[in-house]
Task: inverse folding
């Protein structure tokens, strides 16, 4: 990794819509190799990187889970050279009109999401947000050309390039969750110069935006003693200002609630306090909506923690993250791992 | 035909009232070919290229330099700004788009609250403009009153151009090309006009200043040639991509001069240049403001069809632009005073 800004920017440029993450996995393989002892792909395509600890074998292990997939679109039907579309993952229909996209046909075709004029829509449909059923993707080619180059089922990803905003902020369409993948990368780098007793599994999981399939299956295969799920959370900003939102650029968040083992929460909070890394508590009264959901209930159960990186405008092509928050999250992960005593699991209790 | 020039023009930020960036490009391009270049009281660039001989027609061509966009009107701290729309933009085009602000093209974004936290009513409503912000990042600063526009970068993809502001940089680029090949039997008067998108203001005074025998507005007009929701053929396509320049006959601001309409059609047909007649209807061009200038000026509009006008990404066919240029060039070559009974 040269520097975080250029690493994350390159990571954001690689399309990795849920189910089709292999390009991202290959990119990460190259970047994780110097910092890991072993790399492998799961049966579903998640990337596992192992960094062995210094403790006596058999060692406990901690899994750092960050999903590498992103939401996107796909072609459902072709009509007169225009593409009808549907969503992969939790797409926000409000951001689609006028959006630059890339249709991954026989070749990559730049296009745009067309908002048909009112006269082409059923009456009433033009009053508010146009539903995805009425939006089209236009690649500006003749119907014959389109028929040659595009098929039903082809993927469509967002087309814009990452944007740097003043004060070390990066915007792009896969910040959820490549920001967390970058935090894991920073952690792996820090661990080069830190001793740690435990084995560390770095996991770049697939299909989080659909059904957590990658995290569930990798947790089963790797069977870590503990897991830390790293995912983006909601930053305060235009359109987001209630208790579920956190200041942008003011540190990561530590989840608290039924998806999180309370002793892990406490360890993280204490570490952050000692290191003076700002870190808000994110209350997750029911579910965290992250890979941690499936990891927690894998096999006989895995104690899990959720580390959040606040981003603005989640699930839009201009998701915005503070690079400092990514660095802090990475450092906190490394400090946590370095702090794990050989007998930590024996002391992981529910009530004292 | 200079696609590179069009690219520079389209990537410039020149919202109505702030046309300076395009004006500078235009001035540099036209000076070597013009007899006279003026920037008038409103900021129009007025270019004269005189012909030779007697009884020359004074022909005005108009293309507007401005584009729709935004103005920053209130600061909320942390790089967040409220903004107003300048020109007609559907607010549904705004959420989730990158923008550029001011003369330095400072990067910014317009986001929206996360879909995860939005109620189903909120997801169905048109976003309210006053709920949206231009976000320059917590370290970002701009001046209130700065203009902004979509940050889309021009690109050519095979036969198609993808860009913001094709309306009307394609007209601006056309006029620059036509100046270079202007015939000598006419006086060519070019108005690179301002503030078209907020009321045809520049063209009004440019028409007065030039006092031409006739004027042609060269603009971009929407092509609504998309499928209808029910699979029926659309009766309201306005224009279609790939069918050549759109000649106007009637719109909300003008009845185009029938002599000029017929002349353009005959020129196209005898030169085998594809063309289409824009469906009569709403909308308008600078021709509307020019026509009622002075004691009246015969006008017609010719537009390059493009899809998704006033949005972050418009599409146009290179062939349509080429045929527009050819039609305009041939028309200038063939035109005589007899057309207006001035033999």
Result:
């Amino acid at each position: 990794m040269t520097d975080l800004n250029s690493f994350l920017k390159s990571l954001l440029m690689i399309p990795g819509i849920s189910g089709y993450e292999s390009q991202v996995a290959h990119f990460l393989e190259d970047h994780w190799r110097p910092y890991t002892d072993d790399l492998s792909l799961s049966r579903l395509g998640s990337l596992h990187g192992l960094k062995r600890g210094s403790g006596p074998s058999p060692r406990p292990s901690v899994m750092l889970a960050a999903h590498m997939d992103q939401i996107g679109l796909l072609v459902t039907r072709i009509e007169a050279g225009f593409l009808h579309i549907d969503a992969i993952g939790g797409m926000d229909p409000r951001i689609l009109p006028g959006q630059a996209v890339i249709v991954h046909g026989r070749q990559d075709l730049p296009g745009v999401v067309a908002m048909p004029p009112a006269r082409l829509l059923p009456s009433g449909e033009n009053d508010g947000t146009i539903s995805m059923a009425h939006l089209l993707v236009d690649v500006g080619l003749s119907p014959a050309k389109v028929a040659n180059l595009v098929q039903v089922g082809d993927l469509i990803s967002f087309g814009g390039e990452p944007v740097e905003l003043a004060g070390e902020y990066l915007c792009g369409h896969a910040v959820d969750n490549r920001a967390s993948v970058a935090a894991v990368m920073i952690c792996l780098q820090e661990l080069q110069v830190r001793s740690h007793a435990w084995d560390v599994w770095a996991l770049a999981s697939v299909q989080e935006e659909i059904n957590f399939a990658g995290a569930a299956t990798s947790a089963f295969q790797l069977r870590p003693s503990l897991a830390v799920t790293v995912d983006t959370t909601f930053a305060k900003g235009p359109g987001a200002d209630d208790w579920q939102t956190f200041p942008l650029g003011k540190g990561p968040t530590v989840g608290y609630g039924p998806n999180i083992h309370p002793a892990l929460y406490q360890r993280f909070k204490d570490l952050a306090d000692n290191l003076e890394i700002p870190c808000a508590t994110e209350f997750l009264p029911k579910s965290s909506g992250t890979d941690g959901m499936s990891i927690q209930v894998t096999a006989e159960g895995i104690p899990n923690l959720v580390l959040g990186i606040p981003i603005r405008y989640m699930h839009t092509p201009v998701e915005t993250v503070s690079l400092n928050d990514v660095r802090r999250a990475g450092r906190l992960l490394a400090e946590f791992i370095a702090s794990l005593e050989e007998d930590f699991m024996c002391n992981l209790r529910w009530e004292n | 035909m200079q696609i590179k020039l069009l690219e520079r023009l389209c990537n410039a930020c020149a919202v109505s009232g702030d046309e300076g960036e395009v004006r500078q490009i235009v001035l540099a391009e036209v000076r070597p070919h013009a007899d006279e270049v003026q920037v008038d009281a409103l900021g129009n660039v007025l270019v004269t290229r005189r012909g030779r001989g007697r009884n020359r027609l004074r022909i005005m061509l108009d293309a507007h330099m401005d584009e729709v966009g935004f103005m920053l009107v209130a600061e909320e701290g942390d790089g967040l700004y409220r903004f107003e729309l300048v020109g007609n933009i559907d607010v549904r085009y705004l959420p989730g788009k990158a923008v550029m602000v001011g003369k330095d093209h400072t990067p910014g974004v317009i986001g929206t609250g996360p879909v995860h936290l939005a109620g189903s009513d909120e997801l169905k409503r048109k976003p309210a403009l006053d709920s949206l912000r231009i976000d320059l990042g917590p370290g970002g600063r701009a001046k209130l009153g700065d203009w902004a526009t979509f940050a889309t970068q021009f690109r050519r993809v095979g036969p198609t151009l993808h860009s913001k502001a094709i309306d009307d940089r394609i007209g601006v680029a056309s006029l620059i090309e036509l100046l270079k090949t202007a015939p000598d039997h006419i006086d060519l008067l070019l108005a690179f006009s301002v503030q078209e998108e907020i009321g045809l203001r520049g063209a009004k005074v440019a028409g007065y200043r030039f006092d031409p025998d006739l004027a042609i507005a060269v603009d971009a007009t929407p092509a609504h040639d998309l499928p209808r929701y029910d699979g029926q053929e659309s009766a309201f396509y306005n224009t279609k991509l790939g069918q050549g320049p759109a000649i106007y006959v009637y719109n909300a601001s003008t009845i185009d001069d029938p002599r000029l309409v017929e002349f353009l059609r005959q020129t196209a047909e005898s030169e085998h240049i594809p063309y289409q007649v824009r469906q009569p209807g709403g909308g308008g061009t600078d021709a509307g403001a020019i026509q009622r200038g002075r004691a009246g000026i015969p006008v017609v509009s010719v537009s390059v069809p493009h899809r998704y006008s006033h949005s972050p990404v418009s599409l146009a066919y290179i062939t349509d632009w080429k045929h527009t240029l050819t039609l305009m060039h041939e028309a200038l070559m063939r035109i005589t005073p007899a057309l207006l009974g001035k033999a």
About this structure: Chain A has a mean pLDDT of 96. Chain A has two domains: 4-70+173-347, 72-158.
